[in-house]
Amino acid sequence: VQLVESGGGLVQAGGSLRLSCATSGFAFEDYAIGWFRQAPGKEREGVSCINNSDKDTLYADSVKGRFTISSDNAKNTVYLQMNSLTPENTAVYYCGALYYAGTTTYREYGLRRPDEYDYWGQGTQVTVSS
């Protein structure tokens, strides 16, 4: 199993980045893919999540309207388009795979329970300068 994040980097406030999470080794459509971030000294925070079977999406309130998650089942890849970035968005961004066990569990765990995720990538650094 592999999840490989890419697309991080240094960007000025107000700018945009597109993160990618390329996956392999598991049944992509049976899983939801979530993006989490972790800043120094802070807990891992759920950002967005997508269920690959029906494309149901979840967003943290802090990113609604600015971030968009999407997935390409043919490429087993999930994307996170991040617009209007602020310095507060600076963190290491991780993607993880959560086995989809129904809508209730997905909505409960998707952004709030990183401990329930089955697989994780190594992370990609996003730095937003002011």
Write structural notes for this entry.
The model has no long low-confidence stretch (mean pLDDT 97). By secondary structure, the chain is mainly beta. Strand 5 (45-51) and strand 6 form a beta hairpin. Strands 2, 4, 5, 6, 9, 10 and 11 form a 7-stranded mixed β-sheet that branches. A 4-stranded antiparallel β-sheet has the order 1-3-8-7, with no helix packed on it. The chain is globular. It has one helix spanning 103-109; strands at 2-6, 9-12, 17-24, 31-38, 45-51, 57-59, 67-72, 77-82, 91-99, 119-120, 124-129. 5% of the residues lie in helices and 49% in strands. The chain contains 1 helix and 11 strands.
What key phrases describe this protein's structure?
single chain, globular, mainly beta, 130 residues, 4-stranded antiparallel beta sheet
Shape: globular
Low-confidence stretches: none
Radius of gyration: 14 Å
Helix run count: 1
Largest sheet, strands/sense/barrel = 7 strands, mixed
Distance between the termini: 37 Å
List the helices and strands and how they pair.
Layout lengths: L1 E5 L2 E4 L4 E8 L6 E8 L6 E7 L5 E3 L7 E6 L4 E6 L8 E9 L3 H7 L9 E2 L3 E6 L1
Parallel strand pairs: 2-11
Antiparallel strand pairs: 1-3, 3-8, 4-5, 4-9, 5-6, 7-8, 9-10, 9-11
